[in-house]
Design a protein that fits this description.
Oligomer: single chain
Number of helices: 12
Cofactor: a divalent metal cation
InterPro entries: HARBI1-like (IPR045249), HARBI1_dom (IPR027806)
Protein name: DDE Tnp4 domain-containing protein
Family: Belongs to the HARBI1 family.
Pfam families: DDE_Tnp_4
Order of helices and strands: HHHHHHEHEEHHEEHHH
Shape: elongated
Number of domains: 2
Number of strands: 5
């Protein structure tokens, strides 16, 4: 009996030593591993970006990291971390990820820090502010199949899933974020050009807010309205019937009995406006943390910053010729089209301009 107890004690000691050796080995592997040392194919499959681009981003973001936060965590690891997060959803206990030798709280601090650093690159998201810039965007849309003149952007909203705010949160009541599709989200407004570049993005509104309501508060709307007042009658966005018809925002014709020119206009409008749906699809395909079933487990404010960071990265990818990786089962069409066609009747000037477009280009 004594011998058996002695053997059990020895086995327990050996098992404990084995666990310690494994723990030390895993720690060494995490501390010494550098994702940039991976083969390019493996790196792209995880990060959805090239090693060269990630390296350049680490260099460009480094100066935006506050000095006081550089002491706790080695900067290169800190900057590489979000490139794991943005392409895919981190598990709740993300600190246990093979490539991350950090606790969950450290991971959250890192994401917050890097999101703040990305604010220095928000200039990458830019809506054309002068005639020269507008002409370039218009030409891009004109060169599209079925395109027509005057388009300075395509607009749409998309729902980005977030975790439900606390029921005790007076600033962010959960009910506001519960959308018509049955999940908690931010309703994100995106305006893009013909090349899928994001020219404006607004992630400040909860999922229950209608696309048209977001549009009424949009600075781009105020800019286009002022341009119209100043005499620019040939610049407009294109949006679906979830938006009101305005002199600077063209929507489809929704009559039951369409004329042939109106049908031609709708066909052209639909195929051209599809560019914003493709932009949203590419954004979510690359940064899969934005997909509906990969919920952002952060407060609405932090989730919005993550969305902005992803939009900046999206534009940088386009600038540097980074082709996105298409994965069919990760793409989703969450069209946020709530019909409010009745609002079209409230804007005679918009109708006049749309009729002029139909008469001039689609007869």
């Amino acid at each position: 009996m004594a011998n058996r107890g002695f053997i059990l004690l020895i086995n327990a000691i050996n098992n404990d030593e084995e666990r310690n050796r494994n723990r030390i080995m895993r720690k060494q592997l995490r501390d010494q591993s550098d994702p940039l040392d991976m083969p390019e194919i493996q790196f792209r499959s995880i990060y959805r970006l090239s090693r060269n681009m990630v390296h350049n981003l680490i260099v460009s973001l480094g100066p935006h990291i506050p000095d006081g936060q550089r002491e706790r965590i080695f900067i290169p690891k800190k900057l590489k971390l979000p490139f794991i997060f943005f392409p895919r959803k981190l598990p709740k206990r993300s600190g246990q990820d093979y490539f991350i030798s950090m606790s969950q709280s450290s991971v959250s601090r890192c994401i917050s820090t890097v999101n703040t650093a990305f604010e220095g690159l928000y200039y990458k998201i830019h809506f054309p502010s002068n005639e020269e810039e507008r002409s370039v965007v218009k030409q891009g849309f004109m060169e599209m199949q079925n395109g027509f003149p005057g388009i300075v952007g395509a607009i749409d909203g998309t729902q980005i899933a977030i975790s439900a705010p606390s029921i005790n949160n007076e600033l962010f009541p959960p009910l506001l974020f519960y959308n018509r599709k049955g999940f908690y989200s931010l309703n994100v407004q995106i305006i893009c050009d013909s090349k899928l570049k994001i020219m404006a993005i607004n992630a400040r509104f909860p999922g229950s807010v209608h696309d048209a309501a977001i549009w009424t508060t949009c600075q781009i709307r105020e800019l286009l309205r002022n341009n119209y007042i100043d005499g620019d009658y040939s610049s407009w966005l294109i949006g679906d019937s979830g938006y009101p018809l305005e002199p600077w925002l063209m929507t489809p014709v929704s009559n039951n009995d369409l004329t042939l020119p109106e049908q031609n206009y709708n066909t052209s409008h639909r195929s051209t406006r599809n560019v914003v749906e493709r932009t949203i699809g590419v954004l979510k395909a690359r940064f899969r943390c934005l997909l509906k079933h990969r919920v952002l487990h952060y407060s609405p404010t932090v989730a919005a910053k993550i969305i902005y960071s992803c939009a900046v990265l999206h534009n940088i990818c386009l600038e540097q010729g980074e082709h996105y990786i298409h994965i069919a089962d990760e793409m989703e069409n969450d069209g946020n089209n709530n019909n409010i066609d009745a609002l079209e009747d409230n804007n005679n000037q918009g109708q006049q301009i749309r009729n002029r477009i139909i008469t001039t280009y689609f007869n």
